[in-house]
């Protein structure tokens, strides 16, 4: 998913970073180098693989550390890389990926590193769970999901809010308002996290009505109706 599209699907506020940033590379807690552009991620990946030849890195375990003053990238439960903000430095070249909030810098770096080492980037739903500190519950549901948008934009939802088709919300017939769901499009495996703030849908066997933004994140805005699975988050 392109970064601009990903930003629309992850509810992490933008905040301009202070100063400039570089990536500090650690190995078992020791600094082994630093780079200053995501264009150098291939160099980082090759160096780590060479140094850990006897302990191969599983790129699927690479993920950003979010919601922390010190953005970082972890490998399983160990901190692998740290992103440092450097005040008053004019000699550090920073690409557009780092002209973001600390969280987005960590996401950009981890996704680049995952891809260089052969894994897919994290999807929007997974990133949202990390940032918000949410975990799946044991309560799951599935069915057919549709989406609604322009005609209802600006009208009141069932819980009294003004419906905004560009936010990540959904309608359900019975789930309590403000229930948080991670929804998966079974046609393409994409996920997004939504909040229930409306009632519906009331057409056929449909059981979930997504906002336009949520449908776009799932890639269902063009087809209209999709099979889905969802899990309640807590």
Automatic annotation (TrEMBL):
Keywords: Cell wall biogenesis/degradation, Lyase. It holds the Pfam family DPBB_1. Residues 142-227 form the RlpA-like protein double-psi beta-barrel domain. It is an enzyme of class 4 (lyase). The keyword Phosphoprotein does not apply. Its EC number is 4.2.2.-. InterPro entries: RlpA, RlpA-like_DPBB, RlpA-like_sf, RplA. SUPFAM superfamilies: Barwin-like endoglucanases (SSF50685). GO terms for biological process: cell wall organization; peptidoglycan metabolic process. GO terms for molecular function: lytic endotransglycosylase activity. Belongs to the RlpA family. PANTHER family: ENDOLYTIC PEPTIDOGLYCAN TRANSGLYCOSYLASE RLPA (PTHR34183:SF1). Lytic transglycosylase with a strong preference for naked glycan strands that lack stem peptides. This is Probable endolytic peptidoglycan transglycosylase RlpA. The gene is rlpA.
């Amino acid at each position: 998913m392109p970064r601009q599209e990903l930003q629309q699907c992850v509810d992490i506020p933008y905040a301009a970073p202070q100063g400039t940033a570089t990536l500090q590379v650690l190995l078992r807690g020791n600094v082994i180098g630093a780079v200053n552009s995501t264009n150098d991620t291939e160099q980082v990946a090759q160096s780590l693989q060479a140094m850990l030849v006897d302990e191969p890195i599983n790129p699927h375990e690479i993920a950003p550390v979010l919601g922390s003053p010190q953005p970082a990238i972890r490998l399983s439960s160990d901190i692998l890389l740290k992103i440092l903000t450097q005040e008053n430095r004019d000699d550090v070249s920073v690409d557009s990926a780092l002209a973001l909030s600390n969280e987005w810098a960590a996401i950009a770096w981890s996704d680049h590193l995952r891809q260089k080492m052969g894994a897919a980037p994290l999807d929007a739903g997974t990133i949202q769970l990390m940032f918000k500190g949410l975990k799946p519950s044991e309560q799951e549901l599935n069915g057919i999901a549709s989406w609604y948008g322009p005609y209802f934009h600006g009208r009141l939802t069932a819980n009294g809010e003004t419906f905004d088709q560009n936010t990540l919300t959904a309608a359900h017939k019975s789930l309590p308002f403000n229930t948080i769901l991670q929804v998966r499009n079974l046609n393409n495996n994409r996920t997004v996290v939504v909040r229930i703030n409306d009632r519906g849908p009331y057409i056929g066997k449909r059981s979930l009505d997504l906002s336009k933004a949520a449908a776009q994140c799932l890639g269902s805005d063009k087809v209209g109706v999709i099979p889905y699975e969802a899990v309640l988050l807590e």
